[in-house]
Specification:
The complex is a heterodimer of chains A (about 450) and B (about 100). Chain A contains 17 helices and six strands. By secondary structure, chain A is α/β, with parallel strands linked by helices. Chain A has helices at about 5-25, 30-50, 60-75, 85-110, 115-140, 155-175, 180-195, 205-225, 230-255, 260-265, 285-295, 305-310, 315-325, 345-350, 360-365, 385-390, 440-455; strands at about 300-305, 330-335, 360, 375-380, 410-415, 435-440. The longest helix of chain A is centred in the N-terminal third of the chain and has 28 residues, at about 115-140. Chain A folds into three domains: about 1-75; about 80-265, no CATH class; about 280-455, TPP-binding domain (Rossmann fold). Mean pLDDT of chain A is about 85; it is low at about 265-275. The radius of gyration of chain A is 25 Å and the shape is elongated. Chain A has a six-stranded parallel beta sheet with strand order 3-2-1-4-5-6. With about 100 residues, chain B is mainly α. Chain B contains five helices and no strands. The longest helix of chain B has about 35 residues, at about 60-90. The model of chain B is unreliable at about 90-95 (pLDDT under 50). The chains are: A alpha/beta (about 450), B mainly alpha (about 100). At the A-B interface, helix 1, helix 2, helix 3, helix 4 and helix 8 of A face helix 1, helix 2, helix 3, helix 4 and helix 5 of B.
C-alpha cells in the first residue's frame, strides 16, 4: 500500500472527528466541536474525490447537490421540538446509504470469506436500522400509534426472523454466488427492523433512537472492513460506541434494563385501569394560580414534553422573570428523560434564554422538594408519577421521579385528564393539594404572566 | 492479512468513543446525539467510491447515487441542526441582565 495525499487527508479527518467529540463535552467548546466535525467530513469527501479510482463525477455532484437540497430545509425548517424525529429520519437516510453500498459491493464483487462477512453485517445492520428508524420517526411524529403493539410469542417470532436472516447471511458468506438468496436476506432484515419497533412504546423511543445510532455506526464500521478503509472504521466505531453508551445512560435514568426496553412492551398492562374514570380533581383558573405563585417563597418548575409541544418555553421564561422580580426563588427541575430526548428540556429552555444555573438535575432537586412551596408541572406526567415509587405493578415501577408530591402545593398544567406517554394514570392529580390547570401550556402560562404582570410588579 | 490491523483500529476507536462520551454533560446529550448521527454519514465516502467507479454497472450507479443522496441528506441536516441547537446555548448569559 503506497501512502499518498488521500491517506494523509483521511488521517487528519479521523483526528477531526475525535476532537469533535472531545470538544462536545462542554457547552463552551461545543460549537468548535461541530466545526471540527464538519471539517473532518469535508476532508473525507475531498480526499475520496481525489482517489484515482473515482473518475465519474457527474453522478456524485448530482447526488451531493440533491442531498444538500433535502438536508438544508430538513435542518432549518424543523422546529426545535421535532429534533428527535429529525434525528430518526436522518438516521434512516444514513443507514440506507450504508446498506445500499453494501448491496452494490455484493453484486459487483460477490466476494468470499471475510469481506463477504463484513458486507453481510453491513447490509443487515443498515437495512434493519433503516426501517426501524422510519418506524421510530412514525411513532415520535405520531403518524403511527405510539402505543406498543404486542402479541403472543412475539419475541420468539422476531428472534426467529432475525435468526433466519443471520443463517441466510452466513450461507452467503460460504456461497456468495447464490444471488437469489440476497434479496430474501434483505427482505428479512427490513422486516426485522419494523418488527423490532412495534412492541416498543413511545416513551422508550429516545433510547431506541440512540441505540439505532449505534447500529448505523457499526454498519459504517463493517463497510470500513469490507472496503479496507480505516477512516470508516474509526468514525463508525466512535459513533457505535457513543450511541451505545448514550442509550445505556438513558436506560439507567429510567431504571430499566436494556432487555426490558427491547422486549418489555411498555404500557400494555393498562387496560385494567380503565374502570375508575371520573375521580374528582381540583382545578383552578389562571387568576387563582397566579395569586398562589405570587405569594410563594419558592417555586420549582418541572417541564415535560407538553411544554415542547405547546412551545411554551418563552412564556415560561417570562413567568420566571416576573417571579424572580418579586423575590420568589425559582428553579427548574430537569428529569433526565423529560421530553423525547435526553437533554431535550435543556435545549428548549436554553432557546428561551433561561439562565443555566437555574436548571437543576433530578438528584439535586429532590432533597429540596419537601421545602418547596409550589411545584409547577408543565406538560410532564410520567416523570412525576408517584406510582413509580409506590406501585410495584406499575409499568414504570422503579423509575426515578422528581418528588413533586412532597411539595406544599402542586400545580399541573395539562390539556386534559388523558394519561401520559407510558399510558398510565397519575395518582398525583387526585391529591388534595393538587390544582389542575386545564389548558394549552402556552396559553395558560401567558395567562399567569398577564395576571402577575398587571397586579403590580 | 490486513484485517488484524483493522480490528486493532476498531478496538482503539471504540474505547476512545466510550471515554469521550462518558464525560459529556447530560445537558448536551441531544446535540451530541445529532452530532454522532452526522458523523455516521461518513458512509458518504463509500457512496462516492461506488458511484465514481470507472466501469460501474447500472445497478452500482443507481444504488451509489441513491446512497450519495441519502448520506448527504444525513450529513447536511445533522451538522446544521446541531449547530442551530448549540447557538441557543451560546447566547444565554449576556442576554440576561
Amino acid at each position: 500500500m503506497n501512502f499518498g495525499v488521500y491517506q494523509a487527508l483521511y488521517i487528519v479527518s479521523a483526528g477531526c472527528f475525535i476532537l469533535a467529540l472531545k470538544w462536545m463535552s462542554s457547552p463552551a467548546t461545543s460549537r468548535r466541536g461541530v466545526l471540527s466535525g464538519e471539517l473532518g467530513m469535508l476532508l473525507a469527501i475531498v480526499a475520496t474525490l481525489l482517489r484515482h479510482e473515482v473518475v465519474n463525477f457527474e453522478w456524485i455532484a448530482a447526488g451531493l447537490i440533491l442531498g444538500s437540497a433535502i438536508g438544508v430545509p430538513l435542518a432549518m425548517l424543523m422546529p426545535m421540538t421535532h429534533v428527535p424525529q429529525r434525528t430518526a429520519i436522518s438516521q434512516a437516510c444514513g443507514a440506507l446509504a450504508s446498506a445500499l453500498i453494501g448491496t452494490a459491493e455484493y453484486f459487483r464483487l460477490k466476494p468470499h470469506g471475510f469481506i463477504m462477512g463484513a458486507l453481510v453485517l453491513e447490509t443487515l445492520l443498515g437495512f434493519l436500522t433503516f426501517t426501524a428508524s422510519l418506524m421510530a420517526f412514525g411513532k415520535l411524529q405520531e403518524v403511527l400509534s405510539s402505543r406498543p403493539i404486542t402479541f403472543k410469542g412475539q419475541n420468539i417470532f422476531n428472534l426467529g426472523i432475525l435468526g433466519v436472516a443471520v443463517v441466510l447471511g452466513g450461507s452467503l458468506v460460504v456461497h456468495p454466488e447464490n444471488t437469489l438468496v440476497f434479496p430474501v436476506f434483505v427482505g428479512l432484515a427490513l422486516l426485522f427492523g419494523v418488527l423490532m419497533i412495534i412492541p416498543i412504546g413511545g416513551a422508550d423511543m429516545p433510547t431506541v433512537v440512540a441505540l439505532l445510532n449505534s447500529y448505523a455506526g457499526l454498519s459504517a464500521c463493517a463497510m470500513g472492513f469490507a472496503l479496507d478503509n480505516k477512516l470508516l472504521i474509526i468514525a463508525g466505531a466512535l459513533d457505535g460506541s457513543s450511541g451505545f453508551i448514550l442509550s445505556i445512560i438513558m436506560c439507567r435514568a429510567m431504571n430499566r434494563s436494556f432487555t426490558n426496553v427491547l422486549f418489555g412492551g411498555f404500557g400494555q398492562l393498562q387496560t385494567s385501569a380503565a374502570g375508575q374514570e371520573a375521580r374528582p380533581v381540583r382545578s383552578a383558573s389562571p387568576e387563582e394560580a397566579a395569586a398562589i405563585l405570587g405569594d410563594a417563597r419558592s417555586v420549582v418548575i418541572i417541564p415535560g414534553y407538553g411544554m415542547a409541544v405547546a412551545q411554551a418555553q418563552h412564556k415560561i421564561r417570562e413567568l420566571h422573570d416576573l417571579l424572580v422580580k418579586r423575590g420568589v426563588d425559582v428553579k427548574f427541575a430537569i428529569h433526565p428523560v423529560a421530553g423525547r430526548m435526553p437533554g431535550h428540556m435543556n435545549v428548549l429552555l436554553a432557546e428561551a434564554d433561561v439562565p443555566y444555573d437555574k436548571l437543576v438535575e433530578m438528584e439535586d432537586i429532590n432533597s429540596e422538594m419537601a421545602m418547596t412551596d409550589v411545584s409547577l408541572i408543565v406538560g410532564a406526567n410520567d416523570i412525576v408519577n408517584p406510582a413509580a415509587l409506590n406501585d410495584k405493578n406499575s409499568p414504570i415501577a422503579g423509575m426515578p421521579i422528581i418528588d413533586a408530591f412532597k411539595s406544599r402545593t402542586i400545580m399541573v398544567i395539562k390539556r386534559g385528564m388523558s394519561p401520559g406517554f407510558a399510558g398510565i394514570d397519575n395518582e398525583l392529580y387526585y391529591m388534595d393539594k393538587t390544582l389542575m390547570l386545564f389548558g394549552d401550556a402556552k396559553t395558560f402560562v401567558a395567562g399567569l404572566v398577564k395576571e402577575l404582570g398587571s397586579n403590580h410588579a | 492479512m490486513n484485517y488484524e490491523f483493522g480490528f486493532y483500529v476498531f478496538m482503539l476507536a471504540a474505547f476512545l468513543g466510550f471515554e469521550l462520551i462518558r464525560k459529556v454533560s447530560p445537558l448536551l446529550h441531544t446535540p451530541l446525539m445529532s452530532l454522532t448521527n452526522a458523523i455516521a454519514s461518513i458512509s458518504v465516502v463509500g457512496a462516492i467510491l461506488i458511484s465514481g467507479e470507472k466501469d460501474a454497472s447500472t445497478l452500482s450507479r443507481v444504488l451509489g447515487f441513491i446512497a450519495v443522496v441519502a448520506a448527504t441528506t444525513n450529513l447536511v441536516s445533522g451538522y446544521l441542526i446541531t449547530d442551530r441547537m448549540l447557538k441557543m446555548f451560546k447566547k444565554r448569559e449576556p442576554a440576561k441582565k
